[in-house]
Structures are given as structure tokens and as C-alpha cells.
């Protein structure tokens, strides 16, 4: 059965509780950390890691291409890196920009930054030019650490965007030789309220916003998702092919590993064809996913390694109900721990009870309310919000309180735009998730869709205004409207742009090259529709909705191009393109 559950009952919860029994002792250790978190308590990621390294120095912590480094060994190198950063003036509250693909060094410089009470600014290495310059301006970093694998992104930066100190990993290693291996003295003094990460997310402005994550909010992942839901054991290894600038890897995966005192196996980047081979090579028992990753694995031809692994539990978000059972059965997965969350959101849902095809439950206060087409909450004649009945889609909003604060973005004005005040009574405040969900009982939800001017593709948020800006600057284009469209067999929504031109059509290869240069690869639109005109009157939003509803199938006489890939650029729409996208054969 591949239908979405309409309700969660007592029997579902009891079944989940029975499955938890072997892990109850470890769960009991983590439950207080979820319920009684305090920003004043001396509890940070650096302190947790240092304690594990002191208690279990010989236990494997990082695995890379099958080779392990122990907690003690990694901790000593982390401390040497921290000494280098401190020597360049990095202290509590300072920002260290990190531009890197997954590697042991990447994770170690993150931990080194956190041990100093500094903020790890996690740059997205897919960004280029003015976009990554904008991200750097938000960070106001004291030091920038760069991975040679990210040279293209680094070289596209304007030199004036660089901080005073820029070190590539080779220079960092050279500087770290002979530095102190002792834990920095400041680490033990840091409260949980200390800022930990800036994580970039696309917003409706069209340029990235840096969401803020404190150690205290990261600890909710550590205790709630890691300790109570994933429940790794010291003998477990979690394989992570998602980038460490992504919250699934940085917070969910790292939190689950440290909560269990387990090992993290890193892959530089995801490969569907090598995935199970790398799982086996790294002796992994768990991995992190996004929905599209699971689609790609199912699209691979069956092979013996589909079942020759030791995976027993996976954690992620975006596992669509229609593939849940197939994925579980084909690859022999015991538990799928689906969750729902966002970098800037002050709560998360997690499938701790194992209720299939749901995003799980959340013990923190939230509401599902009526909404407007633009993604705002709809107010009644009294100016208050109306909750949606169970089972009906509505806008998810989370209560803001001293117990559950919002870290928001680096820009306070951007944070305030997402806050709904006087929602149900005077003086209350809620955070607008921008997402549609259904509440199905016992604080469980199922995800429905995203609202507003962003859509999600390849596990990343794409801002339509950023895409429109890039298309508008292409030769021959006079106007553009971007939106997301559903592609059968794929998660999220693919980019589509309605375009007007001055005369002849632009060169299809040149257009693709321009967009690849201006946008991250996941944001390059798959579909280009040439339209006679684009309304820019007060009815413009309705026109955009009509274009989105028409998608790439109901386009009348308008010409539609599709993205074949970097080499071939755009080509005329052809039968079979949608199937190629679903099978990860296009774009290439």
C-alpha cells in the first residue's frame, strides 16, 4: 500500500514503542536533553566531542574510503587547527568561512571553529560570482578556509570579498604542525546559547540568506532526532554523502553520530552507481538521505550489492509515500526515520515511532492553519488565524517562546518577515514555515508542498527571483517568469521559466552556458517556454499561477525547450524527456 496515512492511532504508537525497547536505556539518557534544554547550560558540540574523545579515544570517529581515524586522533588534530585559528584572532562570536567539499579536514575545521566559540559559516560550493560574494558579505568572516576541490567557486569570488586571512587546506595543515593538541581552554566555558553555524538558504529576495543555528538548537537534533529517533550505537557507522553545508549532514547526521558515540563515514559527493559499494567499503550500518537520493538509487539497475550491505536504519527527509515500501523492500532497510525541518525553523518532526509514510511527530507547540496563495497565513474577520481540521492541508506555523526561541537569519528584518504576531491572541508569536502539511493525529504530520516564491529541487531551495535575474541577463531575453513544476517520478519541483524575446530565439547552448555560470547547477531551469508576452500589471501574480498550473504540458502553440546538460545545452522538448529526468539520465 503506497497511500499517505490519514490518521495515526494508538496501535501505531504502541507498535513503535515495542520496537524501541532495546534502545530504552540510551533513550532515557537523551530524553532530558530534549525537554530541559537551557541556553545557559555549559553544553556545546565541542564539549560533547571532547568528552567522547577523552572517554573513548580509540573508538573510530571518521571513516574515509574505508580508513578510520579515532576520536582521540581527530580531537588532537582539531585542537591543532583551533590553535591556528586562535592565532589569527578567531575568538568567541567570530565567523570562520568554510568552503569545502566533504572530507575529514572539512569536518575537523568545523569542530575546531566550534571549540573556540566561533561560528562556522558553511558556504555552498555551488554558488558563483555575485551570489557567493553576497554570502561572504553576510558572514563578515575573520578567516576563510578553502578546499582546493572548490577552486572554481573560490576563483569566482571578488577578491575584495575575502577576509584578512585566507588559508587553503594545505596551508592550514602546514600551519598546524607543532601546535598544541590540548583542548582550548575556552571550550569548557561556552554556554549552549553560543552561536554555532550560519547555514545558507534561498529566500524570496533571490539571494541567499544565512540562517542562524545556536548550539542549543543543534542540541535538539542531537537529543531528539539522534538520541530518541535514530538511536545509533557505538558500533554503528553512519555514511554521509550529502554536503556538510547541508543541515541534514551538519545537524542531523553529526548529531546522531555524536549522540550514539558512533562513527561517521564521509563521501566527497553522492554517486548513485557507487553508493552501495561505498556503503560496503565503509562498513556502514546507517545513512542519511534526501528524497531525490532515494529516487536515484531506485532508478539504478538491480545488482547484488542492493542487499549485500549492513544498513539497518536511515534518516532523512523527502521520502515520498509512493516509493517508501519499494525502497524499504528492495534494499532491506529495517527502519526509515523520516523527519521534517528547516534551517531557520525552531522545531522539527521526526518519525520516532516508525509510522510509515509520515514525517513523524513533534512534542513542541505548532499549528496547521488556513493560508493565502502567496504563502501567508489567512486571517479571519477578527484578524485571527483559523486552524485546519485534521487531515486537511494547511500552513505549518510554530510557536515562538522562551522555551522554543527562533534563531532566525543574520538579518533581523528577514527574520521578522517570517514571524506572525497576534495569531490567536494578542501578544503571541509564531514562525511561518512556508510549507503545507496535514496533521494526522498524535502530533504527527505528512508533508504536502512548499508555498511562496521558492521551490525545492535536488534537496535545495531555489528562489524564483534568483532564476529570473539570471535569465533576464541572457542575450536576447526581454523578460522572464520562473516557477517550479512537478515532474512525475521526481521529488520537489523542477525549474521552468516563461520567457519573452526581443527577436530571434537565443542560442540554446549559449543560454545554457550563461545560466550554468550564473546559477548553482540545481537552480538551472529544466524547461524554457517562449511566450508572446508576460503580464506585469496587478494581475501579474495570477498570470504566474496560470503559467505554473500549465506546466510544460499545457503550453498551446508556445515553443518549449528542455535542458539536455552542460555540453548540449537546451534542445526542443521531446517525448521521453520527463522519463529521462526521473531516471537521472537528463540533464547531464
From TrEMBL:
Matches recorded under Pfam families: AMP-binding, AMP-binding_C
Q: How far does the signal peptide extend, from start to end residue?
A: none
Q: Which GO terms describe its molecular function?
A: ATP binding; long-chain fatty acid transmembrane transporter activity; long-chain fatty acid-CoA ligase activity
InterPro entries xrefs: AMP-bd_C, AMP-bd_C_sf, AMP-binding_CS, AMP-dep_synth/lig_dom, ANL_N_sf
Alphabetical GO CC annotations of the entry are: plasma membrane
Top EC class per UniProt?
ligase
Task: Report the PROSITE patterns cross-referenced here.
Answer: AMP_BINDING
Q: What is its EC number?
A: 6.2.1.-
Give UniProt keywords alphabetically.
ATP-binding, Ligase, Nucleotide-binding
Q: What region holds the AMP-dependent synthetase/ligase domain?
A: 50-353
Origin: domain of life:
Bacteria
* AMP-binding enzyme C-terminal domain location: 466-541
Tell me one GO biological process term: long-chain fatty acid import into cell
What protein family is recorded?
Answer: Belongs to the ATP-dependent AMP-binding enzyme family.
Q: What name is this protein filed under?
A: Fatty-acyl-CoA synthase
Q: Per the UniProt entry, what species is this protein from, by scientific name?
A: Gordonia humi
Amino acid at each position: 500500500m503506497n497511500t499517505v496515512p490519514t490518521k495515526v492511532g494508538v496501535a501505531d504508537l504502541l507498535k513503535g514503542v515495542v520496537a524501541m525497547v532495546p534502545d530504552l536505556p540510551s533513550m532515557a539518557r537523551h530524553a532530558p536533553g530534549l525537554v530541559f534544554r537551557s541556553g545557559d547550560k555549559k553544553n556545546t558540540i565541542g564539549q560533547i566531542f571532547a568528552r567522547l574523545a577523552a572517554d573513548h579515544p580509540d573508538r573510530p570517529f571518521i571513516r574515509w574510503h574505508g580508513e578510520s581515524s579515532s576520536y582521540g586522533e581527530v580531537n588532537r588534530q582539531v585542537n591543532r587547527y583551533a590553535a591556528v585559528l586562535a592565532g589569527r584572532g578567531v575568538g568567541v562570536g567570530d565567523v570562520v568561512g568554510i568552503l569545502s567539499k566533504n572530507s575529514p579536514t572539512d569536518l575537523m575545521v568545523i569542530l575546531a571553529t566550534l571549540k573556540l566559540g566561533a561560528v562556522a559559516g558553511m558556504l555552498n560550493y555551488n554558488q558563483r560570482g555575485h551570489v557567493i560574494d553576497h554570502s561572504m558579505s553576510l558572514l563578515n568572516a575573520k578567516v576563510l578556509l578553502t578546499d582546493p576541490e572548490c577552486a572554481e567557486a573560490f576563483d569566482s569570488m571578488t577578491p575584495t570579498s575575502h577576509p584578512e586571512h585566507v588559508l587553503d587546506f594545505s596551508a592550514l595543515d602546514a600551519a598546524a604542525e607543532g601546535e598544541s593538541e590540548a583542548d582550548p581552554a575556552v571550550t569548557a566555558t561556552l554556554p549552549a546559547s553560543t552561536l554555532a553555524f550560519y547555514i545558507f538558504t534561498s529566500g524570496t529576495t533571490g539571494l541567499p540568506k544565512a540562517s542562524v543555528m545556536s548550539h542549543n538548537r543543534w542540541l535538539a537534533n542531537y537529543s531528539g532526532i539522534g538520541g530518541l529517533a535514530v538511536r545509533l550505537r557505538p558500533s554503528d557507522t553512519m555514511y554521509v554523502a550529502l554536503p556538510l553545508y547541508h543541515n541534514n549532514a551538519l545537524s542531523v547526521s553529526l548529531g546522531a553520530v555524536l549522540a550514539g558515540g558512533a562513527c561517521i563515514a564521509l563521501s566527497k559527493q553522492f554517486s548513485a552507481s557507487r553508493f552501495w559499494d561505498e556503503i560496503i567499503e565503509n562498513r556502514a550500518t546507517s545513512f542519511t538521505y534526501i528524497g531525490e537520493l532515494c529516487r536515484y538509487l531506485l532508478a539504478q539497475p538491480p545488482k547484488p550489492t542492493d542487499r549485500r550491505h549492513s544498513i539497518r536504519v536511515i534518516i532523512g527527509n523527502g521520502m515520498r509515500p509512493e516509493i517508501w515500501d519499494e525502497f524499504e523492500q528492495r534494499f532491506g532497510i529495517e527502519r526509515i526515520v523520516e523527519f521534517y525541518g528547516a534551517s531557520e525553523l525552531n522545531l522539527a518532526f521526526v518519525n520516532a515511532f516508525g509510522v510509515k509514510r509520515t514525517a513523524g511527530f513533534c512534542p513542541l507547540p505548532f499549528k496547521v492553519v488556513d493560508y493565502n496563495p502567496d504563502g501567508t497565513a489567512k486571517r479571519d474577520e477578527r484578524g485571527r488565524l483559523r486552524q485546519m481540521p485534521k487531515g486537511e492541508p494547511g500552513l505549518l506555523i510554530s510557536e515562538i517562546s522562551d522555551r522554543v526561541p527562533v534563531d532566525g537569519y543574520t538579518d533581523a528584518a528577514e527574520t521578522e518577515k517570517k514571524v506572525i504576531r497576534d495569531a490567536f491572541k494578542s501578544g503571541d508569536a509564531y514562525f511561518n514555515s512556508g510549507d503545507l502539511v496535514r496533521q494526522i493525529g498524535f502530533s504527527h504530520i505528512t508533508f504536502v508542498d512548499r508555498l511562496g516564491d521558492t521551490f525545492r529541487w535536488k534537496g535545495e531551495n531555489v528562489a524564483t527571483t534568483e532564476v529570473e535575474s539570471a535569465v533576464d541577463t541572457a542575450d536576447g531575453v526581454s523578460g522572464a517568469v520562473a516557477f517550479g513544476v512537478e515532474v512525475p517520478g521526481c521529488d520537489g519541483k523542477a525549474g521552468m521559466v516563461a520567457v519573452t524575446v526581443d527577436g530571434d530565439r537565443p542560442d540554446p547552448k549559449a543560454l545554457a552556458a550563461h545560466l550554468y555560470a550564473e546559477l548553482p547547477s540545481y537552480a538551472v531551469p529544466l524547461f524554457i517556454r517562449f511566450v508572446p508576452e508576460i503580464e506585469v500589471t496587478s494581475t501579474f501574480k495570477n498570470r504566474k499561477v496560470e503559467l505554473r498550473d500549465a506546466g510544460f504540458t499545457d503550453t498551446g502553440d508556445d515553443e518549449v525547450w528542455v535542458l539536455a546538460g552542460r555540453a548540449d545545452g537546451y534542445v526542443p522538448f521531446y517525448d521521453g524527456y520527463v522519463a529521462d529526468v526521473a531516471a537521472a539520465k537528463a540533464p547531464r
